[in-house]
Design brief:
Elements lengths: L5 E2 L10 H7 L16 H21 L6 E4 L2 H16 L5 E5 L4 H12 L3 E5 L9 H7 L4 E5 L13 H10 L4 E4 L18 E5 L10 E5 L28 H37 L4 E3 L10 E6 L4 H7 L4 E2 L15 H5 L4 H5 L1 E5 L6 H21 L3
The chain binds pyridoxal-5'-phosphate.
The site of pyridoxal-5'-phosphate has 15 residues, from helix 3.
Length: about 375
């Protein structure tokens, strides 16, 4: 039995896993203690739950639990990493390197840093959506204090050459930060093997609650420090003050734990469904895939359907299919995607794009329905549009 609309927008957000909700519930009511209360059982219970979540999140990315800083989500983690490094390392330099297809949480923070006297290099990407590591090397200056390149793009799923770039950063003694919001919980990440010094993630992208995330901050080889962006009680090793969101953190930990166990089977299952969807829609003709098909998240595809405007199409099929043309944050913006434009797409092709992001609830029946329904809608629209 199909439930409409079929949800194929898991890069925007995911439903909370019922096991995550179950894990969280006691921390709203019975175990409501403040994790910073050290003098009674309510505080100890909360602290114990936070400690477990810290271990679960650390395990997901191969970190040590003491390297996890809980935040309100990836936007905050991105702000803390970028502004925190800029403030701390300012005596050494003011230059940051990032790329044109980062999420707005990174790009807008970089714009803020520029207003504060920083200098930012926005590297281009190739038509596949990837950064050329040689261009990272070429952009390095004596005053470079951070290299920031996302793990996987939210619109296309394209994976960046993280290990090559982190090796360059390490060779130049520059901290390397990656926004792994779309990759964490979906594909294996290991901060040691990947050479990552700072990493942002967010619970609601992997079946945890909204408004909870983390920033990984390396403690050894090398030790990375940051200037906190929220001052107060000195929580989270002084990096992020504020009473901890215990239910949210418990949910984040539980979601991380579930992903760790399901990651490989889900990635295989979803890549088969994604490939079937993609292949079927390509047969419509005048359809092409945006971004690399070899370096890509297993559950994502971004397609442009020539002669179609994606926004009116999406609204016309909204009762049956829930998808988007790009990131949720920019879905109200009529401008064509800056990510696709950076990859060299002309405006009409960028406006003709749809992002499909599959998830844990996606079934073969849903994919069959999506193919049939979308193909009919596109054929209809094309027949009525003036070419
Ligand atoms: C790559 C990337 N970074 C950051 C964010 C922001 O995450 P949050 O919603 O947790 O603030 C998102 C969410 O869309 C994202 O996809």
């Amino acid at each position: 039995m199909l439930h409409l609309p079929v949800y194929l927008d898991h890069n925007a957000t995911t439903p909370c896993d019922p096991a995550v909700v179950d894990a969280m519930l006691p921390y709203f009511t019975k175990n409501f203690g403040n994790a910073a209360s050290r003098t009674h059982a309510f505080g100890w219970a909360a602290e114990e739950a936070v400690d477990l979540a810290r271990e679960q999140v650390a395990r997901l990315i191969g970190a040590d639990p003491t390297e996890i800083v809980f935040t309100s989500g990836a936007t905050e983690s991105d702000n803390l990493a970028l502004k925190g490094i800029f403030d701390k390392y300012r005596p050494k330099g003011n230059h940051l390197i990032t790329c044109a297809t980062e999420h707005k949480a990174v790009l807008d923070t970089c714009k803020h840093i520029e207003k504060m006297g920083g200098s930012v290099t926005y590297l281009p990407v190739d038509p596949q959506g990837r950064v050329d590591p040689a261009q990272v090397t070429a952009a390095i200056r004596p005053e470079t204090i951070l290299i920031c390149i996302m793990y996987a793009n939210n619109e296309t799923g394209v994976l960046q050459p993280i290990r090559e770039i982190s090796a360059i950063a390490r060779a130049h003694n520059i901290p390397f930060f990656t926004d792994a919001t779309q990759a964490a919980g979906k594909i294996p990440i290991d901060v040691q093997e990947d050479g990552i010094d700072l990493l942002a993630l967010s619970a609601h992208k992997f079946y945890g609650p909204k408004g909870t995330g983390a920033l990984y901050v390396r403690r050894r080889n090398p030790r990375i420090t940051l200037t906190p962006q929220l001052d107060g009680g000195g929580h989270e090793r002084n990096f992020r003050s504020g009473t901890l969101n215990v239910p949210g953190i418990v949910g984040l930990g539980k979601a991380a734990d579930i992903c760790l166990h399901l990651m490989y089977t889900e990635a295989n299952r979803l890549s088969v469904l994604r490939d079937h969807l993609e292949k079927s829609l390509l047969t419509l003709g005048d359809v092409f895939v945006n971004g690399s098909t070899t370096h890509r998240l297993p559950h994502v595809t971004n397609l442009s359907f020539r002669y179609i405007e994606s926004q009116p199409l999406l609204l016309s099929i909204a009762k049956e299919l829930a998808l988007s043309s790009g990131s949720a944050c920019t879905s109200a913006n009529p401008e064509p995607s800056y990510v696709l434009k950076a990859m060299g797409l002309p405006d009409p092709d960028a406006r003709a794009s749809l992002r499909f992001s599959l998830g844990r609830s996606t079934t073969p029946e849903e994919i069959t329905y999506a193919i049939t329904h979308l193909s009919a809608a596109i054929t209809r629209l094309r027949a009525t549009s003036i070419r």
